[in-house]
Task: structure prediction
Amino acid sequence: MVKYPKLSMWDFGHCDRKRCTGVKLQRANLVGELRLRQKWGGVVLSPFGKKALSPADRTLILRRGIAVVDCSWARLSEVSPRDCPGRQARLLPFLVAANPVNYGKPSKLSCAEALAAALHITGFRSQAEDLLGRFNWGTAFWSINARLLRQYARCNSSKEVVAVQCKYLNITLPPPAEEGEEEGE
Result:
């Protein structure tokens, strides 16, 4: 049996429970449930994050785990960061969904895809493969995203992950403001 870091999720009840990957992982006792507004001390995979997930998050994940926000992408405006609190909110870098609901859509990952990607990027590859192996489309996710996932996993920091993402997407970001500087100064 594969040993996982602690995995949890806040469930907003937006999904069809028969097709929800987060619910399936809960039934398999791989993912615990968090009540809305319940604090999480580990990494939070959240659309409200300000920093990209990177291999540098591995130690925190080993100690505290990963939590994911289970909500519909179409109803994201109904979700508040206060409902899924944690100090270590992280954004996943650019990846393409392979789940049947959002197949081929950039960044519209299911809970299972998000958790597996986070595990892979932070060096828990066997856990990531085991987790997505529970879905018949899991191998498609690895095929579609293999190159990017390998590159993200070789990074040392969030900034490096963002640089890989930007290079892949062929975009240039302005340099970040220095610590303590306000915009417009």
Notes: The beta strands are 7-11, 32-34, 40-45, 51-52, 66-70, 86-91. The chain has one domain: 7-169.
